[in-house]
Write a structure and sequence with these properties.
heterodimer, A: alpha/beta, D-Maltodextrin-Binding Protein, domain 2, 2 domains, 5-stranded mixed β-sheet, globular, B: alpha/beta, Arc Repressor Mutant, subunit A, 5 strands, 12% strand, NrtA/CpmA_ABC-bd_dom (chain A)
């Protein structure tokens, strides 16, 4: 039991690096005999590069990125596995004051309803002349890009023709919005709260409203390291699971915000980090909206690496022309996420785990008890447009989206 | 000597390092070199410059944006791919270690570009080494100042010669298994607590 594991993990200074930060700072890694070194990076490209050359063993990473790596869509492309998710939700769409005013004039409401704000944006775009609206996202292979596009497309807006989508570093988004370089953005926290509180932006909608309980960041593992260090990896998953429980306790929110605010981590005021943890989000013009399940660190199997999540990301890569669909590529995408590693590592904890590795996304309209092993509830997990994704019918889903 | 007709763009927020790279490139005969150290309007400037090779520091937060531009430009038949490919693991490692990354127009022969990356890696390493040395020198200078102040305190308060004052500091450091500069710092702190008015 005294074997010590040295693990180096990369992360990007965002709220959802919380599980890794807490695993180190609250001693959960230490309990598992892990010397966890956290290294901050300023781009996902650097996270990928350092994973590729084994400077990092694991990293906090965008859910679709390990899939893109395994599909050879980015270079260098380290072979990767995803044995755990780092929570659900956490993103929002922020728009400029001017765009919000126009949207409000077309029926958008401050309750962040995705259907109302999408319809209003559609009307604003219809009535607009000249340059198209420009929205920022953080990366082409990101939940942000896909959920923004999903929301737009389901609202009757073609994300490639009716607006322009550009990639920007999240810390620059608020300034770009205030300067008028972009009209809106989809980013993680604290960058929406920052845009609203410090740069005059207004929330249009949130990830949790577009697709409730949806996947976001994951633990990306260099596959060769994982194969060579199965015990270290399993120990890390236990530490991260314990960290997710700690993060989920409301009485720890304040401390978590203070921890993340440290210069070594997110390095921003705790006041900018608290809203995402409490779900009490400043939406603009001084109003605050309570959002259920805005960011879910543990409940609803939030750390479980669903193959259906991997496959949904894959369908969006195909939908937006990043890769052509083949059965072989679909298999690579599904096999990137590894619920088997998750189960094997955590089975000793006696926690309730999903017995399935995939689920129909968007099927649960209410909180639903599942599985045989105990007190696990999933959902609601609906898409705002009532859409469903059946991971056993990928071809049909892709075909329907291509129309 | 004409190394190439290649149009090279260096993106680096660190102006000194950017200048070192630029100089290296010019010395090697690359005469079409542009340096960007202000990130504002980066996408537009890249489109205008239309470079064959881009050298960028690994810490630059705009790399995700850059890569997305290259990805999009595939549609308009202006493909740019990452320079370090899978077959070249040693050079990826050397580049990442040095903290530099590079991209080239797809189809450009690797051999034509390899010297650029090699040069960038060695200059990045040289720069890190210089920064480290500078840091150490600065640290040493500050240490020496602290020790001088501590010696001054001892000379005045105990009537010691400079040599004796230094010997006392050294002996105390040895006895407590600490560095001389730590003893000096403690002494300065203690003195300022005991006599807040005294400067030296």
């Amino acid at each position: 039991m005294t074997t010590r594991h040295a693990i180096t993990a990369g992360f990007v200074p965002l709220l959802d690096s919380a599980l890794l930060v807490v695993a180190r700072e609250k001693g959960f890694a230490e309990v598992q005999s892990i010397d966890l070194t956290l290294v901050r990076e300023r781009s996902w490209a650097s996270i990928r590069d350092r994973l590729a050359v084994r400077q990092f063993d694991v990293a906090h990473i965008l859910g679709p990125m390990p899939i893109a790596c395994n599909l050879g869509l980015s270079a260098p492309a380290p072979e990767m596995v995803v044995p755990m998710a780092l929570g659900l939700g956490g993103n929002a769409v922020t728009v400029s004051a001017a765009l919000w005013q126009a949207m409000a004039g077309e029926g958008a409401t401050a309750d962040l309803d995705a259907r109302a704000s999408g319809a209003a944006l559609r009307k604003v775009i219809d009535g607009r002349k000249g340059e198209p609206l420009r929205f920022g996202v953080v990366h082409p292979y990101s939940g942000h890009n896909y959920e923004l596009r999903y929301w737009l497309a389901a609202s009757g807006i073609d994300p490639d023709r009716d607006i322009e989508i550009v990639v920007l570093p999240p810390p620059d988004m608020g300034d770009a919005l205030a300067e008028g370089a972009i009209d809106g953005y989809c980013a993680g926290e604290p960058w929406n709260t920052f845009g609203v509180m410090k740069r005059g932006g207004h929330l249009a909608t949130v990830k949790a409203a577009i697709w409730r309980s949806s996947p976001e960041k994951v633990l990306g593992v260099n596959a060769r390291w994982g194969e060579g260090h199965p015990e270290a990896l399993a120990a890390l998953l236990v530490a991260l699971y314990e960290a997710s429980l700690w993060c989920a306790r409301p009485e720890n929110r304040e401390e978590l915000a203070q921890l993340l605010a440290k210069p070594a981590y997110v390095g921003r005021d705790a006041a900018l980090l608290l809203p995402a943890l409490s779900g009490e989000l400043p939406v603009g013009r001084g109003a605050v909206q309570n959002v259920r399940d805005f960011f879910v660190p543990n409940a609803k199997a939030a750390t479980f690496p669903w193959k259906s999540h991997a496959l949904w990301f894959y369908t969006q890569m195909v939908r937006w022309g990043q890769v052509a669909h083949t059965a072989e590529r679909q298999k690579i995408a599904a096999e990137t996420y590894r619920p088997d590693l998750y189960r094997a590592a955590l089975k000793g904890l006696g926690i309730a785990m999903p017995s399935a590795s995939s689920k129909v996304e968007g099927a649960l309209t209410v909180e639903t008890p599942v599985g045989s092993s105990g007190a696990l509830t999933l959902g609601p997990d609906g898409f705002f447009d009532g859409g469903r994704f059946d991971p056993d019918a990928v071809d049909a889903y892709i075909a329907a989206q291509m129309r | 000597m004409k190394a190439s007709g290649l149009n090279v763009l260096v993106i680096d927020e660190n102006r000194i390092r950017a200048a070192i790279i630029e100089e290296g490139l010019r010395d090697s005969g690359y005469d079409q070199v542009t340096v960007i150290d202000v990130m504002h309007g980066l996408a537009r400037r890249i489109a205008d410059l239309n470079p064959d090779v881009i050298v960028i520091d690994l810490e630059n937060p705009n790399r995700d944006m850059l890569e997305s531009i290259f990805q999009l430009s595939r549609a308009v038949k202006r493909p740019i791919a990452m320079f370090v490919d899978k077959s070249d693991e040693a050079s990826i490692e050397a580049a990442v270690e040095a903290g530099v990354s590079a991209y080239i127009v797809d189809g450009l022969k690797q051999e034509r570009v390899r010297p650029i990356l090699k040069m960038a890696i060695s200059r990045f390493n040289a720069f890190s080494r210089l920064s480290r040395e500078l840091e150490e020198t600065r640290g040493e200078l500050e240490n020496r100042k602290a020790i001088d102040r501590a010696k001054g305190l001892l000379m005045r308060s105990r009537g010691l010669s400079e040599e004796e004052a230094y010997a006392l500091l050294r002996r105390t450091a040895m006895n407590q298994n600490r560095k001389i500069v730590e003893i000096a710092q403690s002494l300065i702190t203690a003195a300022s607590l005991l006599d807040p008015g005294a400067k030296e």
